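PROTOCOL LOG
Step 1. Enter all chains and additional molecules of the complex.
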Amino acid sequence: VTLLKGNHIVVYFGLTICTIGTLLPIMWLIPAAFTKNAALSTENFREVVHVMGYSYANSLVIACVSTIMNVVVCSISAYTFARMDFRGRGFLYNVLFLPYLTPIVLLTIPLYVIFRALGVINTFVPLILLYQLLMGPVNIWILTDYIKSIPKEVEESALIDGCNQLQVFARITLPLLASGIVSAALLSFIASWNEFILATTFLNVRNLYTFTKAIYIFSAVNPRGAIDWGFVSAASILGMSPLIVFLMILRKYLVAGLARGAVKG
Amino acid sequence: VLRKWLPYVSVSPLFLIYTIVLIIPIAWAIYLSFNEVTISLRTTFVFLDNYVQLFGDPYFHNSLRASAVFVVGSVIGQFILGLLMALLLNEGLKGTSFFRTIFMVTMALSDAVVGYAWYMMYNESEHGIINSMLRSIGFPAVEWLTNLNMAVWSMTIANIWFGGSFAMIILETGLKSISSEVYEAAIIDGASKLQRFGNITIPLLKPFIATCLTIITLLTFNYFGLILVITGGGPIHSTEVVPLYMWNLAFEFGEFGYGATVGVFAIIVNVVAMGIYQFSLRR
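Step 2. Run joint prediction.
Step 3. Record the structure below.
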């Protein structure tokens, strides 16, 4: 029994209204994308691929590398937080929250100087490092929670059998952690594929643009002027479709991840 | 010895990254906020001058107003929308998982995509579907992006649409934790739907509501992606929220020192908001 006691008509009516509201802004991109000079055509897509096709590849590279790095770093840290007792643990666990108290734009000015000194300006390195902050904390909360839900005895018996802590982590914990890792990877990938502000700030060389920056730069016919809606719509559809498919396939991991990450954190 | 140092070694990659891209930059930004910084990044120590300037700066006051509307509007809107969707999904009727997937689609989208999608809908040309619909049912068209009072609300509406599903996930998790026996008992006692909602659903949902409101408040206060795309802060600064003002100061006008001052102020707001939340949780 729930609040509305399953009143079908009311519930389905509400669900339908919400569905229309959610889909309208996205669906409205489709007619614009397939129209060129008032005629049905795929010209816009061809133009997008020609002008900024490479930017999707850049986004993919950045998203893959930062996801892999994020999952590796976060699962090791989460295991440490969940299983080991050490001085300063509580303090460090609280420090994790810091990115969410900081307007990330504030970091860009000092970071520009730092990355220039390190000689990695106009590479993907600054973005990949910064993207560790986006979902890093949430992923550690998710993974810590997953690890805590694995009975300690399983690991202890392996320790007795002569494995060291690293082997226990790799052979016992990691496989049991698979669904948590899928959640974390999905969150990371979505966040880094879609990130816009930092990409806009840090990538100033045309051939390094991600698709989000490329849309922003190439959409305007002239600066702050008329926008080529057909081009923007086509570019947006190309940018969001792979992730929507991803989300549909892996949605239960996303729900589980967000529920754990948000509620524990 | 190894056992003692292992935990520190294993969290070190994470905190190395934190140190490089978060802690040093924050410290540096705080330092910059006490300096006059030129475009070539030469600094002159001016102590509190930037902060004095901040409190008398009409554009800063304007950004606080814009942020207040944007944050309060977005948080209330996302919460109500999220709660509504969560309540509907929690009924568990056939097709629930299909509807949940549809509602979650907004999570797969980029600021850039959402920005242009809404920009197009708000447009006053033939692409502006909202005005076309309004006209077709006999209402006058609205100047979504050109009216000085309207523009910030237009940003808020778009952001509510963008973020509602996140609130939905958290609140649905909360609703699932309420067992159906509680409702059954209330029904036997003759409680109406509204009484059940007010006396059972909301109180039992409270921790989830608190978490949800805090997270979306912090996220929204620091967020300006879709505003940058749609208006860039205009018309006449009316949608220039605090972080966007900082961005414009630094990257449009090269005022790195003063921009950092605005940023440090924003951190203080965040910490205070977080503190209020922690305090209210403890009570």
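Step 4. Note key features.
The mean pLDDT of chain A is 86.
Chain A touches chain B through 95 residues (CB under 8 Å).
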